Amino acid sequence: MRLVTVKDLRTYFHTAEGVLPAVDGISFHIDRGETVGMVGESGCGKSVTSLSMLRLIPIPPGKIESGEILYDGEDLLKKSTEEIRDIRGNKISMIFQEVMTSLNPVLRIGKQIAEAIEIHQSLNPRQAMDKAVDILRMVGIPRPEKRIKDYPHLFSGGMRQRVMIAMAMVCNPELLIADEPTTALDVTIQAQVLELMKQLKTVMNTSILLISHDLGLVAEMAERVLVMYAGKIVEEAPVEGLFRDPQHPYTKGLLTSIPRLEGERGRLNIIRGVVPRPTEFPTGCRFHPRCDYARAECTEREPPQKVLDAQRRVSCWLFE
Q1: What single DSSP character describes residue 80?
Q2: HEC string of 3-22?
Q3: Can you give the residue range of the structural domain that contains 18?
Q4: Of 6, 68, 176, 247, which has the fewest beta carbons less than 10 angstroms from its beta carbon?
Q5: Quick check: is 8 in a domain?
Q6: What percent of the chain has pLDDT over 70?
Q7: By three-state DSSP, how is residue 51 classified?
Q8: Residue 145: helix, strand or coil by DSSP?
Q9: Residue 99 confidence class, pLDDT cut points 50, 70, 90
């Protein structure tokens, strides 16, 4: 059953350099209880997509130009500020990318968690603090009844990430948007955070939009993957199919860039060049300057979306 459906979303930034189409006509959906991965290089529009879904785009310079974001069949873009605040942090929560700077340094941890509980669940301060203790215990913070009185600087990076997950999950959201949830964490803590997210998803049946550069993380966590490049979704596929048989040249480039333990060791494969600035997107397919398969039509016209089967779609002239 569909929980969220995004249709033709366009989020542009109006700057002195010109109009930057950070997200330029993307469509996707997330089912109830499903984990969807979103991958791509920095600058492809992943974080802007997530912020658009919660209407957190700074205005100005940003603006959601058009599209629909349907949550339970209702368009979030048409809701009032008060209505979207009731959904944000309650029905849809987000773990932000910069965990080390996402917590307020002058407020105690307990106060930051309890605030959302008081607002969305109409509990008094004492009841909210008791629930904050319970959620900290659930995410593995030792002695939570004491740690709620501490400030963020007294927590390690891994502990702060657990606090961020607690804040996001305390109101039992239906959708959790996790933007690079393991950034700057060592591999041991990463594994603990991933296991925690899996447990919370099982207990609460929460859907997850997982944004990450780490393809191994996406392979472990997601059921379906969206590949973004230069503000567009260029490929969508079930996770097993994507890793076994990628279709878009950009997806192939990402997968062949992963270091592997098996086989002969040689020079690591790379995708030449970099993601273009939004003010400098090329005509036609935006990936064609970096693509090994580019041909004439790739430089002239934007490729249409090709539906390969019920679960796979790709935007590439190779399939026309």
Answers
A1: -
A2: EEEEEEEEEEEEECCEEEEE
A3: 2-91+171-319
A4: 68
A5: yes
A6: 96
A7: helix
A8: helix
A9: low
Domains: count for the chain? 1
The partner residues of 226 in beta bridges, in order of sequence, read: 38, 236
The structure tokens listed for 182 are: 């393991």
DSSP conformational letter for 282 = P
**Residue 259, pLDDT above cutoff 80:** no
H or E element that contains 83: helix 81-87
Average pLDDT over residues 255-268: 76
Residue 145 falls inside a structural domain:
no
- Condensed to tens digits (0 to 9), the pLDDT of residues 111-166 reads 988 888 888 877 888 888 988 898 888 877 889 999 999 999 898 877 888 888 88
Q: Identify the top-confidence range among 82-91, 128-137, 139-148, 230-239.
A: 230-239
CA angle 162, 134, 209 (to 5 degrees): 45
Contact predicate 145/131, CB 8 Å:
no
Cα separation, 124 vs 122, whole angstroms: 7
CATH number at residue 242: 3.40.50.300
User: Cβ(158)–Cβ(189) under 8 Å?
Assistant: yes
Residue 280: partners with Cβ closer than 8 Å, 6 or more residues away: none
119, 164, 166, 171, 303 from 114: Cα distances, Å: 9, 13, 11, 10, 48
Give the DSSP letter of residue 172: -
Nearest residue to 193 (alpha-carbon basis) of 214, 175, 172: 214
Alpha helices in 95-156 (DSSP H): 99-102, 109-121, 125-138, 144-147
Burial class (CB in 10 A: 0-12, 13-18, 19+), 205: exposed
**Residue 7 maps to a domain:** yes
Establish if 267 belongs to a structural domain: yes
Residues 235/315, Cβ–Cβ less than 8 Å: yes
